[in-house]
Specification:
homodimer, about 240 residues, alpha+beta, globular, DNA-binding
DNA sequence: CGAACCCTTGATACGCTTCAACAAGAGTGG
DNA sequence: CCACTCTTGTTGAAGCGTATCAAGGGTTCG
């Protein structure tokens, strides 16, 4: 959803050279901000560059700040008992918020987070951010808006889980990933896509074949063509 | 979750008589606030007293403010084509927030809302609230906290839908409703409870019988006793 | 080359829904 | 007061959707 600026960043050309590369990320996370707000964010953000597989935070850890993925992808899920395993629940592809909510709550983080590839993660420590919010009401409002956006998205996810079967969810997911184009490249392992759709890899494989047989898509490895976007849309719609 | 203050309101005795009855509601929605913030809220809130079945807002309607249920219960779901039908997705039992998010987003409300019984609903118009937030940063922070709480709860719901079967969800729901007590009264039709658990009424009936046969609960109509809360907890836990 | 992944495919099992029938109130009107 | 109808909850039988288990083929990498 917020990945629009990830590739081209046409706005970057117009920004003064003094701005750090993370500034575009803040723009796409919080919308347009004034120079003062950006400077404040840049000053208080703790940037961490992580290798693939590195943990970002753990379930139950006390959250000292807000977390965002600036580059790369981070997985949210549950670490398994055996050290290597990781039951993925959602992947966050930068730039996007990773955990906006936990810092405000006493329970700490709800899930484990670990880098899926090399990634750059920012943490905004809560006390400092709070002060910045008091000086810049615009920033506070933008945070509220970002939280509202997350509420909306999570609500849509629960709705889909309750009312759409696997095929419908896959159709909707393909359309969302394609963002209007008719061709798309799967950016992660199919088993991870399956995890996000709350189905098994086997079922995902079968559903892909179904859509192929129905002439709605063409699949070649990790490249997918949407042959009939309108048909997919109709399929994805409920009832 | 926030219903704790709904019945006893032991704090009410300590408040000056000048405070409107809605003040306790604001306290339980936003936490302790100063007199100035409360006065501001009381001034800008639009209160509506609704008869059973009255619509509160509709899917797609532009949201002009934040909505909260002060008294009674409001259902969130989808109105059916035939005028009477209503596919319930979640019920909000006052005092609790009904829709904190939509006002900040351009898409409007995500679901239809209608009173399930006689209810009292408050709307906080966004422009006025925004001004109030700028004068009272504490209020802004409390709103952020409330949104974070919703993100947390919705995340838990999706997690449960993905990883828990019907029996586990029912066990968890019973424990949550009982709030530590060992006896509880079902406050709504069983089919509505089933809708919230994303199962059919038939399955709910069968699951209740299952739990009864396992000796975990005793059921008599709408009265339920938790005979073995620890056992329920163990059942509700995943794996 | 083998080893370790990943994806696919098939057979089978299980959970839940759907459909149909029935019992138990609550209201209504004769 | 008794039929009559509506609504709700319960129960059973059958069927659909998805998971699970097991096997095979394709890559990549040591």
């Amino acid at each position: 959803m917020l990945n629009l600026h990830a590739l081209g960043t046409p706005a970057a050309a117009r920004l003064p050279a003094s701005l750090s590369p993370a500034d575009d990320a803040w723009q796409s996370l919080l919308g347009d901000l004034g120079a003062a707000e950006l400077a404040g964010l840049r000053e208080l953000a703790l940037l961490r560059r992580l290798p693939a597989g590195a943990p970002v935070f753990g379930r139950g850890d006390l959250a000292a700040g807000l977390f965002a993925v600036l580059e790369g992808a981070v997985g949210l899920g549950q670490a398994m008992a055996d050290a290597g395993g990781f039951q993925l629940e959602r992947t966050v592809r930068g730039p996007a918020w990773l955990d906006l909510a936990s810092a405000w709550l006493p329970e700490g983080h709800a899930l484990d987070a670990r880098a899926l590839g090399p990634a750059c993660v920012a943490e905004l420590p809560l006390p400092a951010l709070r002060r910045l919010m008091q000086r810049h009401p615009l920033l506070a409002e933008r945070l509220v808006r970002a939280l509202a956006q997350q509420v909306r998205e999570l609500g849509a996810v629960t709705h889909d889980l309750m009312h759409k079967d696997a095929e419908k969810r896959l159709a909707a997911w393909l359309l969302q990933q394609a963002r209007g184009l008719t061709e798309l490249r799967l950016g992660e392992r199919k088993r991870d896509i399956a995890a996000q759709l709350a189905i098994t890899p086997e079922t995902l494989s079968r559903m892909m074949r179904q859509l192929k047989l129905k002439g709605l898509i063409a699949v070649a490895g990790y490249a997918v063509q949407l042959l009939d976007p309108a048909g997919l849309q109709a399929l994805a719609r409920e009832e």
